[in-house]
Amino acid sequence: MTPAEPVAAVSTDAALIAAWHGGDEPAAAELVRRHARALARFLAGAGALAADVDDLVQETFIRAFRGLGRFRGQCQFRTWLMTIGGNVLKDAHRRSRRARVVPLAEDLRATDGDPHERAVAGEAERRLVAGLEQLPRMQREVFLLRAQQGLEYEEIAAALGTTPGAARVHYHHAVRRLKEHMK
User: Fold this and answer.
1) Would you say residue 4 has pLDDT above 50?
2) Which range of residues forms the domain containing residue 121?
3) Which terminus has fewer CB within 10 Å in the chain: N or C?
4) Secondary structure (3-state) at 8
């Protein structure tokens, strides 16, 4: 494919993959355009919640493009993509089963008890929010993904473009700083 040739003129997925490997970003967009709807239908049919389908499709394409060097063409690209989508869905189900998503404000807010307890809880919430705001961006994001969303360090690293070891360090620094702030 020459640089002047439009992406849509390329009719096969294999040619689009080769073009993308050659640095042609529109080729990746064309692959997404071709397969996103079918992938969304597959994920919805496999049990994904309607509210999660777009995120799962996006995560599937992210993983697919990161691993495109491993695609050998032994099956159709769409089949390979659906396999990745199935794995993304399984990972999401595992996370939702083990994750204890607790909104920080609800966890800290005392709705019963005496007014003094509510005041103390309200003050703790304000201090925690202030402490979170003072954290460097990466520490704050890692802390929230780990503490609030229940993600593993490998998942956090993939989401934030860092390593699992660095995510672990950011988390521990965030916890230490928040503990100091809450004293």
Assistant:
1) no
2) 104-182
3) C
4) helix
